[in-house]
Amino acid sequence: MQILPAGDRALLVELDGLDEVLGYYTALLADPAPHAVDVVPAARTVLVTTAGSLDELRRHLMSVQPLTTAQSAGDLLEVPVIYDGADLADVASLLGCSPADVVERHTSEQWTVAFCGFAPGFGYLTGTADWNIPRRSSPRTKVPVGAVGLAGEFSGVYPRESPGGWQLIGRTDLQIFDQQRDPAALFHPGRRVRFIEAS
Amino acid sequence: MITVLETGPLATIQDAGRAGQAALGVPTSGACDAASYGLANRLVGNQPGAAALEITFGGLVLHADTDLTIAVTGAPCSGVPLNAPTLLRAGEVLRFGLPRSGLRTYLAVRGGIDVPAVLGSRSTDLLSGLGPAPLEAGTTLPVGRLCGPMPGVDLAPVADPAADTLRVQITPGPRRDWFTDAGWASLLSQTYAVSSNSNRVGVRLDGIPLERARDGELSSEGMALGAIQIPPSGLPVVFLADHPVTGGYPVIAYVSAASLAGCAQLRPGQGVRFSG
């Protein structure tokens, strides 16, 4: 673990990878740094902004021990999906299997929200199997709200219509981000997710 | 109530923003020049965090539907009273001319602009599309009651935003080592010009591209206000209020807290010099 500078009001904690990031982030939620404002996990880092002093923040960040993957597992969200995405056949050929196998693999995987970004409520979900799906060579200018996609090691759901380069395998009617709802975002770091084939 | 007659290039409702939700992908947003915004609220006795108007490069025309106590701060527009609490009578029209320096002017109304809050804030976030839409001609703005006693101040002595080259204090960022020493020296020695592509997300700078010490891609990581990100063009982007929560380009440096408000007042074509 390394603590890197990030201006007068933040520090960036660099860790070994997604599991350690989630373990560190969860530990920080349980034992928050005094005066911390935002804690932002990402692929290899956790950014912490503070309204207090950087020295105080640094001392706290040094003292935090990442939790294990089992300890950092959050509650389970089930997401019903209609698997009729425009890229389902392409993903199947990339994985060397049938579209039905892609659905089987996607629904049997235990996904975890590793971190959020790109848009409010957009979660980067990681699984346990070896997903490695290249992005589309040309991104779509319009991906509909609720589209379920794959890119790299991640799966995700578009929280609203936006441009996007992920391979689309299906769609959900579940509104994963609703600014009028409390909580607005259904995906938050650490939450476990299971996709279910909707009939 | 206030009625918008004309908007100028861009006018939005802003408050202290949506801090604390970055882990959900929700940017902080809020007033770009937090110092001027805070001063405007104090001058009319508003609670901190009351919503105000952020006016970009003048041009806003407002009609007072009721008697209002207002204060205007930030970029000094012609035709409006500056840095002083002022009574605007029902029926009067307030016209913001062009600012003589700076870019963003703040109008606080005693009681605050009372539109519905989204995720705890009335700020318009242009990147994420959260909060109220930018003002349009015909928009009516209700006034709330987020105020306490008047401050007993007639005029706040504030310097105008810089009209010529702005000196910006910086500290090395988390990815300083992605750039050569020559690259760092170039960041500190050249005079950049503010690009017309700048907006509430960030100030884009034109100049000589910086030399990187290493190739490859950075994993996306959290970014805070004032991050100086270097995209593949080698030209810096200084992140302002609507910056994304995470970014995938290396952050060579951060703007010091004391220089943030000045960066929010930079206008296209203006010069910028960084000091380490």
UniProtKB/TrEMBL annotation, chain A:
GO molecular function: ATP binding; hydrolase activity
All residue ranges annotated as the Carboxyltransferase domain in the record: 1-187
Keywords: ATP-binding, Hydrolase, Nucleotide-binding
Top-rank taxon: Bacteria
Keyword Oxidoreductase belongs to the record: no
InterPro entries noted in UniProt: CT_C_D, Cyclophilin-like_dom_sf, PxpB
PANTHER family in the record: 5-OXOPROLINASE SUBUNIT B (PTHR34698)
Name of the protein in question: Allophanate hydrolase subunit 1
Species assigned in the record: Kribbella antibiotica
Phylogenetic lineage: Bacteria, Bacillati, Actinomycetota, Actinomycetes, Propionibacteriales
UniProtKB/TrEMBL annotation, chain B:
SUPFAM superfamilies: Cyclophilin-like
Superkingdom, natural source: Bacteria
Gene3D superfamilies: Cyclophilin-like (2.40.100.10)
Entry GO MF terms: ATP binding; hydrolase activity; transferase activity
Residue ranges constituting the Carboxyltransferase domain according to the UniProt record: 23-275
Keywords: ATP-binding, Hydrolase, Nucleotide-binding, Transferase
Pfam families hit by this protein: CT_A_B
Family annotation (NCBIfam families): urea_amlyse_rel
This protein's name: Biotin-dependent carboxyltransferase
Organism phylogeny: Bacteria, Bacillati, Actinomycetota, Actinomycetes, Propionibacteriales
